[in-house]
Design goal:
The chain is of the alpha+beta class. It has a domain at 279-375. Helix content is 43%, strand content 20%. The protein has a 5-stranded mixed sheet. The chain has a 3-stranded mixed sheet with strand order 1-8-9. Strands 2-4-3 form a 3-stranded antiparallel sheet. α5 packs across α12, α7 packs across α10 (165-174) and α12 (205-220) packs across α14.
Length: 376
């Protein structure tokens, strides 16, 4: 048994191998574990749905239609705003945990919200409650929901609902008041999760925060509370509270001189032998890149703007043994797809061959065939 305060010296290769394994990037999981894998990685970032589908497909033996079936037919996945105020796909069973944890910490910049909406805190809470009350298991379009929620509200609130509706929906979603339903033509729809998913188990907010932090560490550890805070969405007190509650289960490790924490049980499970070489083509906004306050451990700073682009866009990357060695693009036309790899430095023939094999996996997930894989 590992003593509470034991420290260990780890190499980046050991840490990368651990994270690759936990992110299901060493071996794809069977389709039957699709929802479990999405939970293991803390959700797939979904402001671009086509990329979220591929984030799952590179980890699971499935195609994009399987992801859509899990989301809209089986309802084992759910789409909503969560970490960092960003759209995510998560297992439906995990939503009560995230909603309890996020709802407990309220709004960042609450006074700004109150001034913007011209309401007091009680009125704002009532507004969020009204959003949940207006929804059930039948999908409603944005316009239908605005009409239902706006009825009886002050003019200032009705004006905001019409002009800045998305901003109000995000905090309501993080409280578990709504999630996405299937599109109705070109219109998005919303439903009440408790009715749409069929089951809902309320969680204690403190326990939910600890559970979410432990889930994070199992995928992204070793990490610091600042890393968790950044992943969660920059509520400064959240990381401190979570780390304090997890204290007895954490160990501090040094990764080539950098101090961080991980779960003691995970330290015991670190692989004894190095894993086989790993080459992946990760889609844009891939969770593997989203878990820490900086990405300096993933690539040289000279290449930062090739990966972290303007407006917060995170490029698709060529990942080799847990490190980013380049970016890539793809173009689909007439049931064929072309891939272009843009490495930061020349790639070996072995890596290019492995990347070509990963391209085949992505093409199969899209239901097309590979026309060409080129290296710029």
């Amino acid at each position: 048994m590992i003593p509470k305060r034991q420290s260990a010296e780890l190499s980046w290769s050991e840490v990368n191998a651990f994270r690759l394994s936990r992110h299901h990037l060493l071996e794809r999981a069977p389709k039957s574990k699709l929802a479990q894998v999405v939970g293991d990685i803390g959700g797939a970032q979904a402001q671009v749905m086509s990329l979220a589908e591929l984030q799952i497909a590179v980890r699971v033996s499935c195609n994009v239609e399987d992801v859509r079936e899990a989301l809209w037919k089986k309802r084992s996945l759910v789409k909503t705003w969560l970490m960092r105020g960003t759209l995510h796909l998560i297992p439906s069973a995990d939503l009560p945990m995230f909603a309890a944890a996020m709802g407990a910490h309220g709004l960042r910049n609450l006074n700004t919200w109150l001034k913007y909406l011209q309401v007091d805190e009680a009125q704002l809470t009532k507004l969020f409650d009204s959003i949940g009350s207006a929804l059930n298991g039948t999908p409603m379009t944005r316009e239908e929901l605005i009409a239902a929620v706006g009825h009886g509200q002050p003019e200032s609130v009705r004006r905001i609902l019409k002009s800045g509706w998305g901003g109000v929906l995000k905090p309501a979603a993080r409280r578990g008041e709504l999630c996405f339903g299937p599109n109705r033509g070109q219109s998005v729809t919303f439903v009440r999760p408790q009715a749409w998913l069929g089951t809902w188990m309320e969680m204690d907010p403190e326990q939910a925060t600890v559970a979410a932090a432990a889930r994070y560490l199992r995928a992204y550890g070793p990490a610091t509370k600042q890393d968790f805070t950044r992943w969660w969405g920059a509520w400064p007190g959240v990381g401190t509270a979570a780390w304090k509650a997890l204290d007895s289960k954490l160990v501090t490790v040094s990764v080539e001189g950098q101090k961080a924490q991980m779960l003691g049980l995970d330290l015991k499970l670190l692989p004894k032998a190095p894993p086989p070489p790993s080459v992946q083509l990760l889609p844009g906004f891939d969770p593997y890149l989203m878990g820490h306050a900086t990405r300096d451990h993933l690539f040289d700073k000279a290449h930062r703007w090739k990966v972290s682009r303007v407006a917060g866009w995170i490029s698709p990357v060529v990942l080799v043994d847990g490190r980013v060695l380049g970016v890539w693009t793809h173009t689909v036309a007439k049931q064929k797809v072309r891939f272009e790899l843009k490495p930061f430095a020349p790639l070996s023939a072995r890596i290019v061959q492995a990347a070509s094999e990963r391209a085949e996996t992505i093409a199969a997930a899209l239901g097309v065939t590979v026309e060409k894989v080129s290296v710029a």
